[in-house]
Description:
The complex is a heterodimer of chains A (523) and B (278). By secondary structure, chain A is mainly alpha-helical. Chain A has two domains: 11-159, no CATH class; 188-330 and 339-492, ABC transporter involved in vitamin B12 uptake, BtuC (Orthogonal Bundle), CATH 1.10.3470. Chain A contains 21 helices and four strands. Chain A has a two-stranded antiparallel ribbon. In chain A, strands 3-4 form a two-stranded antiparallel ribbon. In chain A, a hairpin with a 2-residue loop joins strand 3 (322-323) and strand 4 (326-327). In chain A, helix 3 (55-76) packs antiparallel against helix 4 (81-107) and helix 18 packs across helix 19. The radius of gyration of chain B is 20 Å and the shape is globular. Chain B has helices spanning 55-62, 90-97, 114-121, 123-129, 134-137, 141-160, 176-188, 206-223, 234-240, 258-263, 265-272; strands spanning 15-26, 29-40, 44-48, 70-77, 80-84, 99-101, 194-198, 226-230, 243-248, 251-256. Chain B folds into two domains: 1-98 and 192-278, Rossmann fold (3-Layer(aba) Sandwich), CATH 3.40.50; 109-190, no CATH class. Chains A and B meet through helix 14, helix 15, helix 16 and helix 21 of A and helix 2, helix 3, helix 4, helix 6 and helix 7 of B.
Amino acid sequence: MATTQSGAAAAPTPMMVALKEAAMTAFLVFMLSFLMIGFETQATQGQPLSYTTRFAAIVWGIILVPLGRILMVYDRFGRPMPALIGGGLAFLYLFGGAVIALAFDILVIPFNDYFGAAAGAAGIPMPFADPIIDAIFGLGALYIVIQGILTIRRRAHGELTLEAREAKEALSSQRAKQVSMVLGPALLGIALVLPFTPWGDRVMVETMTLILTYVMLGWGLNIVVGLAGLLDLGYVAFYAVGAYSYAKLAVDLDLSFWACLPLAGLFAAFFGVVLGFPVLRLRGDYLAIVTLGFGEMIRITLINWQEFTGGPNGISSIPRITFFGVPFDRSPEEGTESFHTLFGLEFDSMQRILFLYYVILVLALITNFFTMRLRRLPIGRAWEALREDETACRALGINPTNTKLTAFAIGAMFAGFAGSFFSVRQGFVSPESFVFLESAIILAIVVLGGMGSQVGVALAAILLIGLPEVMRELSLYRMLAFGAVMVLIMLWRPRGLLAHREPTILLHRGRPKARTQKSEATA
Amino acid sequence: MSAPALAIAEPDHISLLKVDHLTMRFGGLLAIDDVSFVARQREITGIIGPNGAGKTTLFNCITGFYKPTVGRLSLYRDGQVGYLLEQMDGHVIGKKARVARTFQNIRLFAGMSVLENLMVAQHNKLMRASGMTVLGLFGLPVYRRAEREAKDKAVHWLERVHLIDYADMSAGNLPYGAQRRLEIARAMCTDPVLLCLDEPAAGLNPRESAELNALLKSIRDEFGIGILLIEHDMSVVMGISDHIVVLDYGRKISDGSPAEVQRDPAVIRAYLGEEEKE
């Protein structure tokens, strides 16, 4: 007891701290990895479940991770050189070795017949059997190096003052604005022409359709979360209402997609109001919990209301989309036209897929246009004011109830449109498509994009929906890598990819000229 | 000094707000205890008192944030009782009775621009002009004209409080004194008949306080509205108030002109404590 007290008084040396933290880290690595990494279960057909052990990997983890910790502790004490050198070497060896090993796997193994089987292993001794793990450890080392570089830069420039940080924030927002202005039209241009480029094959167009559905959902949720500041964790419920509205109306009443689309939006908006009423008095976390519950209620109702919704089996053979009444059939019934006969084209199943793609593109653009327009109207300003300060709103005579309800209703309406598109595209709906994870992904798109930023939402949807598709190569580690990318983005840009807010009305066109006078007013 | 009877046959024609036997109780705590006074048009009514005297609670009752336990708050319009504020919701008081307020801890829409803050204040007028959003969505001239008028009004107020050069900046980035002025401008953009200011001079330097005094006097004289003013800065209160109400422990201990109140032994006792008895 006495020794620890005197130790604390004499300020611990870096070595003491480093050893202590390294020991703790080693223990943590052991506890976390012993069962999950140490034993790999194997299920082979006809055999009982067996396992192999991978203790070597654990030992390497217990050696490497605490070493990295020691480097970081020294860096924290203002000695970045070990981090730079040690981290750098580790990064080069682990990551480089992994890349070479992977390259060998891809380039050489197919030619094993020529080079002999020995070439496949690349011949470099690596700690882990799987190059992907080596690469992840390499990236960890890179993180340590970056920390070291940051320490050196901080030393050179000194700590940022409050004003410098404010200026930096303003600059970053300015840059986000510039990027948005270039990126927005560029993305739109790509979206318009992509199906006609050599890359626009069936898989690409289907993926883009999926991404655009999420872009639309993101823009819809942005009204509720980004503008009105109401954290909604049950947004997928309105998506479900839209999807089932189309399914029921089309199957039971034989209405066409174009008649159902506005109805689905209306139903969803109605549900938005129904949800809105009970939660009006709630804020923040409490609101999030209730909306989460509402989302689950809708899903569970869909599962259990067998006779109306088909229960877990869902509703199938939903009528396909038509070209404003003209179907995309290969062989139309006698006396009716089909899309390809109408335009004198060869039948191609891509025609329907392309049409669906452009339908969702137009729907998404309408959502965007509508939102941008609403922002500049009194209702949009009231939403944002409500997000900033509800009490002040009330003092100014703004009715918070109505304002929140309109945000819920309009956000829900767009989810309803997207939902009916989903069900016409799939031809099948079931409660499985509307689980909480969907709400979480849509919310992640809005937050990652930068709340309120329309281009940011589009970019985030491309990342969040597109990345898992691209990373299918990583198979087992896909979701791990996906999570890591998300964490890194949020560390890099904590307020979202393109966090930027443009005033809805400007007095001075162009540059605000206030900067110079600020110092005078503060003095 | 007896409290006025609840039913007054002939209301004073320049009365604006009559507070009758107002009592506000939070559980066991009596925050306001049977307070009655009258605030008149074209007058600045100062409300002073030591910390915890119930001044802000009084404001919260007047602006509908609290429902008073007992009492009546009558707002006169054209010499008649127009609204009974104790029966109205906060946002209806702002919209219909046109009572505006500022807050002790500034409550601007920090993420929005200075100009937008003043546009939000004209929400109800603009909402009507935009045909509940539908007409505005199509950019009809009716709405465009209303928006231009609202902007002109905002510009007028920005010029008056010397914030015109900051119009497009985030309100949260303004210096403290400027934020106080903006909050007053925002309250005035709602066209109030009664303006309630909760410590508008807190944190201002002497020059800024003097400017505030001039601003409040000009608002009173030009618009003929009543101002209720909570303030600790005696140079502000004594300098511009036409009438002062002193609260202590939720009770009204004095009521009168600044000179009368300053001489009142009850007030001196409340502020400086009892004289020691030998």
